Fold these 4 entries.
Entry 1:
Amino acid sequence: MVKLFESTHLFNYPWAEVTMAIWNKYPNPLAHHVLTADVIDRHVDPHTGILHTTRLFTKEGRLPKWARSIFHVKEAYILEVSELDPRNQTFKTVTRNISHAKLVLIEETQIVSPYVPAHEEEVIAIPAVDGSVASMMGVGHGVATAIRISARVISNTGWQTIRNRLEAFGASQIKENTLRSSKGLMHVIEELKRRKMAV
Amino acid sequence: MASLSPECTPLKDAYYACFNKWYADELLKGSFSGTKKATVSDECQELFTTYKACVWRAIKEKKIDDLIHEARKDDPEHKQ
């Protein structure tokens, strides 16, 4: 069984600033569970100009208490494989846990691109750190950036009941985590901007 | 933010600083449009080589390399 989740988050900042913040996302005040972050492979394809990056993260395991006592999961290793095309301004990341992947695999795809309103697409405007969302929609064209998130959860444990519960937990966790993650990213965007202005 | 192994963190910081500058000043400004081929600057590449060697040593020590290879199996970019 696979559970799916989709969402679009909107940032009132240009693509260049959002992608720069993604490279420098940790630490931030909303990501204390992220313990380490590393670029483990990176190259630019000389023909396409696309920047290929692989990052490895260590995060504190976030299984529910009942599952933690069964599976003894403390830390999780997360792999992010990405392609950034600077000419077309698209940045695609695919992130998944590589430890305990048979227990529960959460794979999240994010596509970061300049925001062009799409028909019937629901978006969540990520507020500035001070809480303001004012004029977000008014300046959206060409200035704002959308992160389109899709995720799937697969559990392969043999116990049907445990599998169902883990998948349900994973799906609800993704929803909560993606929002928190975007708010954390907003902290980094604003911090980078402050530092740039201070120079 | 710490690296996987504490001894790699200073190498990581040096590389990240170099990369950020290259990303903002070269890649995003389109320095590679036209005939010039996109490459990471020699300076950043050198810092990355040192940092990468350190972090991969830690990956192997912690036995995460098999997990990484397993995850990359379906990825055409990393097919051996």
Note: Chain A is about 30% helix and 35% strand.
Entry 2:
Amino acid sequence: MIATALSTTGFSQEVFDAFLAERDEPGWLTDRRVAAWSQFNKLGMPNNRDEEWMRTDIRLFHFDRFAPFAGIEAPSELPPALLATGVDLAGRSVSLDSRSLSNEISDECAKQGVLFGSLDSLVKEHGNLLRPYIERQLVDPNQDKFSALNAALWSGANLLFVPKGVKVARPFHSFTAMSAGGVDLGKTLVILEQGAEATLLTETASTDPEAGGMHCGSIELILEKEARLRYVNLQNWGSGVWHFAHQMGHVGANAGLQWTIGALGSRLAKVNQHVALTGPDAEAQVNGVMFTHGKQHLCYNTHQHHKAPFCRSDLLYKSALQDKSRTVWRGMIKVDEAAQRTDAYQRNDNLMLSTAARADSIPGLEIEADDVRCTHGSTSGRVDDHQLFYAMTRGYTRQEAVRMIVSGFFQQVFDRITIESVRDALGEAIGRRVRDIEE
Amino acid sequence: MTETLKITNLHVAVEGKPILRGVNLTINRGETHALMGPNGSGKSTLGNVIMGHPNYEVTDGTIELNGEDISEWDATERARAGIFMAFQRPMAIPGVKMADFLRHATTNVRNPARKEGEELIPMRQFRKELTEKMEQLRMDTEFARRYVNDGFSGGEMKRAEILQMAMLRPKFAILDETDSGLDVDAVKLASQSIAQIGKETAGGDQMGILIITHHDKLLDQNTPDFTHVMLGGKIVETGGVELAHELYTDGYDRIRASYPEAAVAEQVMAEVEAV
């Protein structure tokens, strides 16, 4: 637990030193944190001359406006968890402002050697087991200031570890909450050993839908050979939250990852989502559902990296944009020379609900092998007046018609999501947000 | 009292250009009217305006349903009041299944006061009714699971429109070239279906039907009580079924010769269109 003494504003040396002093972590981990902290201080803020940041303006973001571990009073009630409704879970964990609040795991899973819950605690109990995975550093602390900061200060983190051959049918659920003006430096680490199978539903939300705050997070998914993971990540922060995230999945031989991202919240989001297919016959399906409104800005850099032959990757991102919101998607399929017989696909569809909304869609291919199939596509369209009229002549109100057309737009991606509670939660959350199209 | 859809001196413009120039038409429930006329004469416009398409501006005249002027109502209100149009080119709504679309539509039309989010017709009852209607129209049940008009052939779209009419049970139906793009057998089936549906509508009263067509085949089973000819944005002549046969066989030369003013207007409208 972090003492309330750490209330200095900003990410100062004092804050970092006090953080380390409170942690009581193994030396190897402290060393990692110290190195990353030094990197954080060395790296400059990204700027708009950088290709990756030229469409995403963070000049209004300042680290010193936020106080990590400030001991903000916990609200009496957490926001509702959307993905867990009516779901029989194998385990659940809750954190608030980067502090673990509760962790539960079914007896059955615990007996099988599954670890689930607070990485902060579990790394102390299972250091030898977890060390090699943490030291792989799938998310490179040196990538930018945000990856360095998370590597230095991650806390309130989640772990799911499933041992070799263990198949867990029921989903795990982890809920990460942030109070108004709070800071979340969460990390999710999933390790599936050979042949293991699991489903993890994670969601993040603010205690108030209009709250501000800052999230600087990381996700690392490690699938050893023949493992199968369904992973869902719903970002539902308050409308004033800055969201910076580095996300990386490694999929081994014959393993399969289905990764679904839902993005509804935040003021500005900059997400790097990277999937690497590292062994032959690995498979990754990536689904993205975004709904933006107000002046939201969501930027996703996706990377499908084929390192081994006979792998398949299939990415479908769909966003609907209301008001003056904006999305940026930059997709890259990279095929290494060794990755013959790659089958890779990426697609991004955007539906504009207002003339002031804007979607940038930038697919990319970088192919070094010569026997591959790589395709990409992107579309941008508006809700059509003729479609609306047609639905209205069938008794739909205009509002009902817009909602129906938007839900139809997302159906193709919902059809791919095999978890009913996730489809329902996303569908309902989007339906509630659709107001009307603007002329 | 017989319910009536009455159009009086209707003038309509699009982007300031006149398209309808004083249309008069009265349809009582139980009557079948055929509306014929050359391309560009304003037939589809009339249908769209009766439905409340926002792109058309009513510059003069009235559209009355049972004496109430509905020309300011939006399409939703008109649909819920029992007016229906089978479109020549219905819009696709990708991702929305025909059955889901129709369950909402049917609930809304049968329960005009329904607000969004209120209960839909029970699934079991809806399914049963939909299956019956699809069997009557010899449609494969797979159809209900397809996305609305998405990738439909011309014939499939037309049959889907008739299916919607069967489910919505309107008081007044406008069929805009429901026969175009159909082969002879399909037109025959459509013709029979429309006649059948026309007799089965809500409240036991028959539908009032306005059939917009270039042919007379759809009229085989739906003998019009009146045939109207439109030229240059006006209904210039009204007759019985024999007029429909005449126009189909002989074309519009006699009409143009008899109504030179409308023929001139037709020319002007065609030139404006070409610009």
Note: The interface with chain B takes residues 384-387, 389-400, 403-405, 407-412 of chain A (CB under 8 Å).
Entry 3:
Amino acid sequence: MVTEKEIWNYLEEVFDPEIPVLTVVDLGVIRSVELIEDKCKVVITPTYSGCPAMKLIEEEIIAKLNEKGISSVSVDLTLSPAWSTDWITESGKQKLLEYGIAPPQDEVDKSVLFAEPPKVPCPQCKSVNTRMVSLFGSTACKSQYQCNDCLEPFDYFKCLK
Amino acid sequence: MEKQKALYEYVLRLADDSLILGHRVSEWCGHGPILEEDIALTNLALDLIGQATSLLNYAGELEGKGRDGDALAFLRYEREYKNLLLVEQTNGDFGKTIMRQFLFDAFRKPLFEKLQHSSDQHLAAIAEKSLKETKYHLKHTSEWVIRLGDGTEESHNRIQESLDALWKYTNEIFYKDDVDSVLIAENIIPSSEEIKAEWTKTINDVLEQATLTIPSNNWIQEGGRKGFHTEALGYLLAEMQYMQRAYPNMTW
């Protein structure tokens, strides 16, 4: 008989389709896992409302758990509480950095309209002499930055709170 | 008007604002003035369409006639869309797109701030989620309004013209009818006066920094909330609904 803990371990083998270095557990999108007899219910939450990866994540969770011998799997989507970058695990943040994406920094309140962009260290050379190129990047969750010292452009996983 | 019916109508209005503006902004995909702005506008469109999906699915549940978000998005006629006239206006140049988005974001942010405490939990959850995205949108568009307004003579004149052209549609943002009074009484939505005060403050602050002038002409154009639209919407729907109209019930 499979346990909820084992299911959490299996979910560590499901990767985010857009940032394949993170598992869905690292990303913090798994809200709960529930086992009732042999039926498994997983509740997930989107990072952004229009995140195009959610459908694929749902299918990959079902495929992974089926592969582990759990045949009855349902995946539900919840919006509240809304996902925050605080839910990315510490090991997830470390993996992002090693992959070349700067992890979210603590930022001042965004309700202040014209706050300075956060100081984000370059994931390559660690210099803090970097600049924001654009608030929006290759996916909804990232901004574009460039390092003024090593000149490398890089993605910043922007803070969402 | 009963509560359920009013809530359906209200959610549909919010949803149509997101859907129609999201579609409009998505028309920039591949046509942005610079790569970073092309990507930024596409991200904005994606957030709006994502919000529209959540809202339309909820509207479908409230209606209870078996229509889902896709059916509501793609299979209604023009008069059944309840979006603001502001959001259906054509993109024009980059400045007009930014001005239209700014006038809208300055309304959406305080609205979602209040709606996240709605007594309707489903609506509150959608608002809580959407607020985080909308804060980024407002920051981005405010910065651009200032950059263009307080930029060169050319950029200043062009964005001022956009403001002049769009201003007549802004009064409708605070349109009120039975739908609103029923829901305000149930603590489901905030009063439009509360939202208008915050909207006005943001608009004044940003336009002042941008050295732009609010038009003195007080002509008002309304109708979207009742389904009366400008010429622009029909063309948009023809494009947006093309696949479902040409190949009914197709999926992929």
Note: The domain at 4-83 of chain A is CATH 3.30.300.130 (GMP Synthetase; Chain A, domain 3).
Entry 4:
Amino acid sequence: MKKIISLLLIVTSINIATAQQYNNAAKDSMQAQQKSNSSLSRFLLTGYTALTVETDGKEKFNMGQVQFSPILLWKPSKNIFFEAELETELNAGALDIGLEYADISYIINKYITLRAGKFLAPFGIYQDRLHASWINKLPTAPLGFGHDGVGTSSEIGIALSGGIPIGPSKINYIIYASNGPQLNTGKEEPGEEGMLMYENALDNNFNKAVGGRLGILPFSNSSLELGGSVQYAKVGDKASDYDKVTSLMYSFDLSFTQQVGFLKGMIDVKAQMNGLNVSKADYIDPYDSTGTGLYTYDNKRSIIFGQVAYRPSMLKIKVLKNFEGVFRYSILNLPEGVKENEDVSQIALGLNYWITWRSVIKFAYQKTGGKENYLLQFATSF
Amino acid sequence: MYMKKIIITSLMIGLIIASSVLQQGCTVTKITERGGAQLWSENCTRCHSTPPPNVYSDEQWDVISTHMRVRAAMTNDETEKIIEFIKSANK
């Protein structure tokens, strides 16, 4: 009898243990499933879109500028993060598709994040933080900013970045090494000799561009940020006549955003200056009839923009507090002696109406050189 | 010609900033002592309008905050406090 009872107890214990094991396994499986679902839910498709109407009031009345930029964000684990933006734009009947950025980040510790891939250039603040149409307060970019401008807009390489609090202030930094820009010698595109080509997936000279940006936010409310950026690169093709040509880019930027009581609203000031120096080189003269004549020039370019926006956000009348006025002044300075030389300045005045926090209708008057334009844009993020 | 315009524009911008800073007074609170709600509002408005917490789920905010930490080089403490605030506001 004792043996039977003992046997029953052993069998029951084994059953209970097995059941518990099964339950634990099922629980583990469920938790794994939940974790898996959780990692899937840390995937976000977002982005922005814009429709722009442009007219000069005389001959041109375009309604065909449509932009759609989906952004994919994914955080597969606590320290790993992936982001990518595809930029599609229908402009004057042509469809442009580009990979704005696609990079993976690894958060090493509180103060250092490693990033690799194609990332927006931390060169000033415009391209990195303000270029998206639902953020940009005017329908256009300032003169010389954006793609093919003076200064890099995105880089392919690796970067270390982070933010560090220092008492009531904080600093942010990024340093990177990338394929860097390449020199346009004008052989294939006469008139563009001496300009730089950016966003190069292939290296042309076994040399990496190095650069970085340091931002200082002196006030604890983060209202003011002053930044300085620099990039140095060899830009000529290896073993060519331009082997030793180098470029030095630098940028200074300012951002100030604050609610101001006596103005009953929000003041937003942004400014940036980019400078680009390319060392001297001899280029084929595009106007020489023999096609062999050479010329050179002091290859220094710069662009500047300053923008002030005001929104009476502290007013009690809802309709009025959604309006925003913007003024921007920008300048493009080209080198003296270059064949295609025309310094240009632009003023832009805008009136925006914010339908929601992420949807805006912008109306702007823009005068570039002597040309006047009127623009209407609807932009939203999703 | 350009130089004059730049100087005038810079002076105007400088005046606006200086008057705003004086009007607000110099804040000397350590960043580490600021609350999540405050940090959330201050950091978003540096570039764009501040979104309401309920437009995204907690998991989505976790992803977005990392995106912003990388993009705007926000500090680790700021990011964690902002996320904590948003999650509490979303309950």
Note: The mean pLDDT of chain B is 81.
